Hints:
There is one protein chain. The chain is α/β, with parallel strands linked by helices and 454 residues long. It folds into 3 domains: 7-95, Rossmann fold; 107-305, 3-Layer(aba) Sandwich (UDP-N-acetylmuramoyl-L-alanine:D-glutamate ligase); 314-451, Mur ligase, C-terminal domain (Protein-Tyrosine Phosphatase, Chain A, Alpha-Beta Complex). The chain has 14 helices and 21 strands.
Amino acid sequence: MSNNWENVYFIGxxxxxxxxxxxxxxxxxxxxxxxxxxxxxxxxxxxQEGIAVHYEDRPDLVPEDTANTLVIYTPAxxxxxxxxxxxxxxxxxxxxxxxxxxxxxxxxxxLAVAGTHGKTTTSTLVAHxxxxxxxxxxxxxxxxxxxYGTNMLMSQNPTVVAEADEFDRSFLQLHPAIAAITAMDADxxxxxxxxxxxxxxxxMFASQVSETLIIKKNLPLNRMELxxxxxxxxxxxxxxxxxxxxxxxxxxxxxxxxxxYPGGTLNDIKLGVLGMVxxxxxxxxxxxxxxxxxxxxKIRHAMGSYLGAQRRLDVHLNTPSLTYxxxxxxxxxxxxxxxxxxxxxxxxxxxxxxxxxxxxxRTRDFAPEFAEALSLLDKLxxxxxxxxxxxxxxxxxxxxxxxxxxCAEKLLISKEELMGVLEADKDIDVLCSFxxxxxxxxxxxxxxxxxxxx
Length: 454
């Protein structure tokens, strides 16, 4: 960034996007520290990497040197936080995470992936293709890459791969050379108000792309107002510029396909990750990399060795009689996509899903759509709402989803009851956990419990 800072202080350092930027500045040799509300596996890793993290709201722990300290905060932190009020009143340079990422990527070639779902898997795959091919990149990812065990990659190649997050209009700080837009569903309506404003923000992002924009076919973008060359992609639509053909599902659950693109065909791409949803994500990632100039054979190789991102159709146990998959899905379209993918991978098996709704506003805005997506399950275990940054809304509980779910078996329980319910259920076949809250704390105990049944 433009100033020669000595210290960088993060308010909300444990967030997936914040921790990537913290790692970047640590790599650059600066003194990095920060606050987060709760300890997690991610904050523990940051501490192991030499970054001081504390979990109490203590302004006295902010570096005292205001002139040489940059403060980066996440909009997920409440405005009432004492540390945030302190730095804002004492003359520190205080910026949002999105502005910091925008400034880091300025002067480099930025490859970005935006979209209300699919962006983490797609951007992580782009970063893997560039790294695996030997070209290299710096990457700021919205999930932990299972190939590299981190959400931040560094390289001498002045190319940045960024997940372009629409939350709080963060992605408008980025000016990519090449970008993909995977989806433009209604989400974050606490910020945007309605779908029209969501589309407006995505259109602004698209207008900031300088060279090539790759969009999911049929997204409502006005190409006439964009300066970038526009291509379309789709999993199977033959009218899309980039699409998959001759899709084969192997006995191991992995798909193989031929990629058709404006320059020809790339045959026999076998994906290292499961699910039809990842065929679509991989077509988008390949499109970005082909437009960037990566050799087709190197793209094919990288696709096969891609292990995915943590919590994205993340397989923790897979036997013919017992399977456990965890996924970050927290929007109805993501849930429907993930559940449909799992059903296609494991035809004829009983799919039990645990879902923890994320945010009162999202639950209120999409209760019927959540119920419809969750009805795709054979059995639902629904937990209480995870509030994250929000205060409760009267009348908004998980029950407004639960009452309209039509699957054969359904339970509404608190998360404290979850392990007991699973222990008692001897009929588990394919178990899936979904959500963006703290449901991830159950992954290890669930895996351990199920492994004892094999």
